[in-house]
Design brief:
Layout (H helix, E strand, L loop, with lengths): L2 H7 L3 E3 H6 L4 H11 L3 E2 L3 E3 L5 H9 L2 E2 L22 E4 L11 E4 L15 H11 L2 H13 L5 H6 L5 H9 L7 H12 L4 E7 L2 E7 L3 E6 L7 H16 L3 E6 H6 L1 H16 L1
Parallel strand pairs: 5-6, 9-10
Antiparallel strand pairs: 1-3, 2-3, 4-5, 7-8, 8-9
Helix pairs in contact: 5-6, 6-8, 6-9
């Protein structure tokens, strides 16, 4: 495989030592670099000239990509909107190198960084997310890290978080949410003062959230598509819930992420009716 192809497969960059470990000689690396016009930055990073600008910046500067800019790299949920489009970099507190264009996080890492990666480790990313994002979005990102099996609830609670916001998140997150939509829904319901239990099995199927004892909520993600058989199953389960005395409600990604006032109003109406 060509050097260009290897770099493409890794997001446009590689640490030189990885090629050496895979049998490339220094002479082969030099020859391939010259033939394919691939620069060697800081004598260790092979980066495609057409790689993302934040990749090139991190390789040139010695910083690492962190916070919201590193979420997709680790398969974590990223909040909607473009307010976090600027690159986020992590640097040591004693950083005195050239200024970086973007959001710079100066801190001592919670966990040792991989010296062969341009991306921060997940615990360090979560620490930055806790301070950089709105609380409900940080909560959803943290729970996505649990869902992706990048960390466990126990690990998060055992970590000596420096900032109280991170400690509060570690105490509140759980392992029941399958998506950022579910995490956001749970966070907002709790802030309404509602008691929410997740993934409760009722009438042979799990409901995403049980509010109180009788409101059974199902949440459909952004890419959720029902075929006819699934739709019939959903309707049948809703009828079974009604027959058992539950109030079934269904919300989708748009409802939760972009039309929350309507969702909240609907929830409050149902809660009030059940309490009457």
């Amino acid at each position: 495989m060509s050097l260009d192809a290897l770099l493409k497969a890794n997001g446009g960059w590689l640490h030189r030592s990885e090629l050496l470990e895979h049998g490339w000689s220094p002479k082969q690396i030099l020859s391939a670099r010259r033939a394919e016009d691939v620069p060697l930055l800081r004598r260790r990073w092979l980066v495609l000239p057409r790689a993302e600008p934040m990749i090139v910046t991190a390789a040139r500067s010695g910083a690492v990509i962190t916070c919201v800019s590193a979420l997709e790299h680790h398969g974590l949920w990223r909040p909607p909107g473009d307010q976090h489009d600027q690159p986020h970099f992590a640097v040591p507190q004693t950083w005195s190198d050239r200024p970086l264009s973007g959001r710079v996080h100066r801190s001592s890492p919670l966990t040792a960084r991989d010296t062969r990666s341009l991306f921060d480790s997940v615990p360090n990313i979560l620490a930055n997310v806790a301070l950089c994002l709105a609380a409900e979005h940080a909560f959803a990102v943290w729970e996505s890290a649990i869902a992706a099996e990048a960390v466990t609830v126990e690990q998060l609670r055992a970590t000596p978080w420096v900032h109280p916001i991170a400690r509060e998140l570690a105490a509140e997150v759980g392992a029941w949410s399958d998506s950022g939509v579910e995490s956001t829904f749970v966070w907002r319901c709790r802030r309404m003062g509602l008691q929410v239990t997740q993934q409760v099995k009722i009438a042979g199927h799990r409901v995403d959230a049980l509010i109180g004892r009788r409101i059974a909520v199902q949440l459909d993600g952004w890419a959720f598509h029902r075929d006819a058989a699934q739709r019939r199953s959903d309707i049948r389960h809703d009828r079974e819930l009604v027959a058992l005395g539950y109030v079934p409600l269904r919300f989708d990604y748009y409802d939760v992420m972009h039309d929350w006032p309507r969702v909240e109003a609907e929830l409050r109406r149902v809660v009030a009716r059940l309490a009457a």
